[in-house]
Design goal:
2 domains
Amino acid sequence: MAKLSIEQLDLAGRRVFLRADLNVPLEGGAVSDDTRARAVVPTIRHALEAGACVVLASHLGRPKGGPAPELSLAPMARCLEALLGRPVPLAPDCVGPEVEGRAKSLKPGEVLLLENLRFHPEEEANDDGFARGLAVLADVYVNDAFAAAHRAHASIVAITKHLQPAAAGLLMKRELEALTRILERPERPLVAVLGGAKVSDKITLIEHLLERVDAVVIGGGMAFTFLAALGHDVGRSLVEADRITTARRVLEAARRRGTPIVLPVDAVVADGIDSPSGRAVSVREIPRSRMGLDIGPLTVERFTGVLKGARTIVWNGPLGVFEKAPFAEGTMKIAAAVAASSAFTVIGGGDTVAAVHRAGVADRIGYISTAGGAFLETLEGRTLPGVEALTEAP
């Protein structure tokens, strides 16, 4: 993961094509969560202070094959103007003669935001001609969109064939450093905490991590498939019946490797997610008419005990239906335990990030990834196209 970074470039007088991930939620024509915008501001400021001008590009949402006014980046232009304290005009498109003219007229210290890249289907097709149209807008390429680095799209991969050098932005660099620290040189014990609904979403990740971690803690809906694989009757809890055999295989592989998989011993059960309350029962005593919707207090103690001995913790996926107050306590308490740990802590995934913010402990997490899919794919050992396309560090 040793890639050239923007800090190693001479940017004075140059136009920087900065690929960011500004795929943010909009409400009433305004940005409702500016987390991703704030994350790229340090890279923009670095380029401007180094004497460059910035051509900023991003996608937003999933337009169906053409321009969609409701997915314009105009609200993001206004958001960035407020964050940067300078004008951020929005180009009428992201390619074409008018855009080229505006890009070439930029002066050092100026920013131009391109319109939504996905208004052109060629973006997601990684089309070479479209990539050439983007490449002519700048002198150097910088990718700060780690959250989109698992996509082989034109502004992420094909553009680097025509615009060099291709460097990592400050956010991309921090993401890669954090994940490298986990995967290649972790302080041990290294504990992975995995939650979420489905085993099928995480099975590749679990199998890959078994070779690298000292313990895997599993909660959330996916835990019930593992409990079913052990022979427990888990009532109406979420179980992927077609994954029970896979779960048994994973448990056996962990046993052979001597890597503990730590599962819930109790659960908060209720009639459904809209129930006003739940009660904690042993995983051996889940009523057939109830479903498990959170880890119970004994499981919280068990998981917290594992985390206390860790020197590195990576967490992805909530441990219950934390969006509903009666079933949030388990996730909140584990968030507090992760934050209280002296370990190097890394979390990723939108729900997990939302959980630590809700718990009020985000400022005590070592590193919070902006990515979901790219974060998981890196932990699974996959090579991300957007990272592979960057220039190797000297």
